[in-house]
Amino acid sequence: MTTSPAEADTDVVHAQRPRPRRGVSLMDAGPPIALVVLFGVFAAMSPGFRTFSNVQNVLDAAAVLAVVTCGISFVLMMGSIDLSAPGIMGASAITVALLVANNRNDNDLGLVGVLVAVLVAAALGCLSGLALVVLKVPSFMATLGVSAVGLGVATLMFAGVQPNISDAMLEGWAVERFLGLARLTWIALACVIAAWLVQRYTRLGRYAFAIGGAEEVLALSGVRVAPYKVAVFTMAGAFYGLAGVMVTSQLSAGLVQAGRGYDFSAITAAVVGGTLLIGGRGGILQSTVGVLLVTVLTNGLVQVGVSPYWQGGVQGLIVVAAVAAAVIPQRRRNQVTK
């Protein structure tokens, strides 16, 4: 029996959709395994490290860094670099300190002051995104400039007099506990869950991965990439702003240098956890494991008596090793066999 050309055209063979690869790769499993091993080593070396109270201290100490890392992870997933955290956190810290009950003025806005501080931080993050997509400034330069702007704004508001807060609600974040953990730790956990939901179930999270993996392909498919880049930087700024508020809660005062060093620590945590600097791999959960790794390492070094002056050097070596471990397999994959 013969078929006409028209009928033949309708006989289309549909290829099976590729199934997702099951299992966990060694790169994905490496950081959690390293966390368990590191915890076991320090627990064996120091009896004080393995106490329940010290575990609580580790989780509480990781709270601010976890929030900053949530923001920076989305930027890294796009293949960009964000160095604006110190300036944005400083601006947010001074803003909230001057808007809640304090020793400088009669303001007492409570949660409204917190919201305003986060919005100011989001605006600074948006400025980074606009500089990237409109002015075509490389991300590390754009964010470094925005960090300087944030520090300048914070210094102007500081005006030479430290604002000490007396707001019971904000001070309670660092002091009051629920189920053994500080309220700041629960806020950080909520941020991690919210960031993961954005990454997993929203277009913004999916496109952040796609931009880092193959931005040209995404643009050729008709997606306007620029608005999503600006949105990611804006969201990152909001996370930094909340982290600045958290530092203010811990110190009971607003400081211009509230975010000092958090940019490097957050990048360290994200990279160690498996979020690549070149984008397209990793995510919030991986970066959170990295936060725990960095915090456990810092706490463990203190417990075993290592000088704090060595800790920065140790973190730097870990970053270099983590980046090398992530890049070497990709170099081998990209080699052409002749």
From TrEMBL:
Gene Ontology molecular function: transmembrane transporter activity
Topological relation to the membrane, as annotated: Multi-pass membrane protein
Keyword Lipid metabolism: no
CC per GO annotation: plasma membrane
Keywords: Cell membrane, Membrane, Transmembrane, Transmembrane helix
Source superkingdom: Bacteria
Pfam families, alphabetized: BPD_transp_2
Localization, UniProt: Cell membrane
First-listed, main subcellular location of the protein, grouped into a coarse class: membrane
Residue span of region Disordered: 1-21
TM stretches of this protein: 29-46, 58-77, 83-102, 109-134, 140-159, 180-198, 230-249, 261-279, 284-302, 308-328
Signal peptide location: none
UniProt xrefs under InterPro entries: ABC_transp_permease
Name of the molecule in the record: Ribose transport system permease protein
Upper classification of the organism: Bacteria, Bacillati, Actinomycetota, Actinomycetes, Micrococcales
